[in-house]
Amino acid sequence: MKKGIFLFLWLSIVFSLAACGQSKNSDTTSKQPSANNFSEVTDMQVPENFILIKGGSFQMGSPESEAWRSADETQHTVMVSDFYMCKYELTQKEYEEIMGSNPSNFQGENLPVENISWLDAVVYCNARSEKDGLTPVYTIDGQNVSWDRSANGYRLPTEAEWEYACRAGTTTPFYMENSPSAEDANYYGHYPYEIEDNYFSQANLEVKPGEYRETTVPVDSFSENPYGLYNMHGSVSEWVWDYYGEYPAEEQTDPAGPVSGNLRVYRGGGWNDFAKNMRSAYRATLEQNKGIFNLGIRLVLNAMPGSGKILGTETQQTDNTDSESGKILIAYFSWGGNTEGVAEEIQSQTGADLFEITLVNPYSSDYNTVLDEAQRDQNAQARPELGTHVENIDEYDTIMLGYPNWWASIPMPVASFLEEYDFSGKTIIPFCSHGGGRFGQSLTAIAKLAPNASMGEALSIHYSGGSTLSSDVTDWLSSNGIQ
Questions:
Q1: Could you tell me the CATH number of the domain that includes residue 426?
Q2: How far is 456 from 438, CA to CA, in rounded Å?
Q3: Is there a contact between 179 and 193 (Cβ–Cβ < 8 Å)?
Q4: Coil, strand, or helix at residue 444?
Q5: Are residues 254 and 388 located together in one domain of the fold?
Q6: Strand runs (DSSP E) across 309-452, as ranges?
């Protein structure tokens, strides 16, 4: 009889564990915390779909030999403690159940929530913590947010935790052995890794161009990474805790980034990104009160209590988008005339001053040649010499900055323009002509080059804009408070 009871209890435990929402690979699935883990987590079941990420040491950033690396990816040694991470990006259903609204550009219960700001994300974390009986992690005071590292509630990962989890023990640009194809991740599949150097002759490409879906996909799409996490590359990028800043050279343990700033970091790349901007080390930035159509979140929980409180201080920027408070300059770079047409429409509606960014040595007028020249300059992060200059930049409070989306970023003449002047305290309002990738990572490029400026609501125009250009510009101007 006792043996029968024992067998019944043992089978009950087995079947209970089998029903706990494990991922496909049992060796990387969520494990219940052991006795030495965070006591407050052990008092509850680990939430469904959260998996234990065992800590360790890794090289954060990218080696100088990595193709298309950025200068802000300096490699350094980082030690990360254990933590729990959701294997899926947060869904629209989960967000709406807590917040009562759904701001997403693409609608679907099992699609990732997007178009939420960093501030929206931390508010959600606290609200869900309270609903689930956990201690909220964040104290929110307007634009300033502090983080209690001992609290057991839901939170955003640090930048180091995110990259550690994405890499999953790998040291290559992506966690998979080869770079991702459009069958492995949801991105601008026409532009796989290193396409820029092989656009006209693709025999040497490791992965060939594939499908561009132009939308997000369900959060359980594709295969997991070695730690059991879905869509760490592509679909939507993911906010992390950290302010943007330079990496320190010394070894770090559980770093949380700078204590102040005006740009927050997001990682992973989205549905409209080129593969180069989905690399494990790539760092994107945006102001914390802004959202975008390819940016969402993935939640984490402490596995053990941390110590101390991090006081995040937002560096306030002056908003000068009200045209009555100062002059507006429309500065633009155009090659084929599309961006020029948008700039002229803006000028006709605002009466603002118009300035064309030109080069001492212009790019070729041949389309195939200029593609080659543009990717060459971007790969080298060149700063071509400008042929025109703004003599009175101090007179302008607002710069409406136009450019074509070249290789998912700004053309390098625009980088030259941004480095020539001091934009501190000014507002930059980007407008971009594109062939399908919208902004790419151009907004990040602008933010990094003009970190002390604030950024208004950006406008993306497909090629020349067509019959809706005038109304699109009018609506955009209104959204920025410009008459």
A1: 3.40.50.360
A2: 16
A3: yes
A4: helix
A5: no
A6: 309-314, 327-332, 353-356, 396-404, 427-434
Phi, psi of 346 (to 5 degrees): -60, -45
Q: Is residue 11 part of a domain?
A: no
- pLDDT tens digits, residue range 314-356? 876 544 444 445 899 999 999 999 999 999 999 999 999 999 9
- Taking the model in full, what pTM does it have? 0.87
H-only helix segments in 170-216: none
Q: Give the residue-averaged pLDDT of 104-126.
A: 98
Facing residues of 51 across strands? 85
Quick one: average pLDDT of 442-460? 95
- Report DSSP state, residue 168: T
The pLDDT-based confidence of 32 (bands split at 50, 70, 90) is very low
Domain membership flag for residue 343: yes
C-alpha distance from residue 19 to each of 39, 45, 66, 204, 480 (Å): 23, 13, 42, 46, 51
Q: How many helices (H) and strands (E) does the chain have?
A: 10, 20
* pLDDT of the residue at 315: 77
Please tell me the distance from the alpha carbon of residue 47 to that of residue 53, in angstroms, as a whole number. 14
How many other C-beta atoms lie within 10 A of the C-beta of residue 360? 9
β-bridge pairing 459-462 and 300-302: unpaired
> 136 lies in which domain range?
19-316
CA nearest to 340, candidates 406, 398, 402: 402
Find the range with the poorest average confidence among 9-23, 89-103, 230-244, 361-375.
Answer: 9-23
Same domain, yes or no, for 362 and 279?
no
Chain centroid offset of residue 140 CA: 22
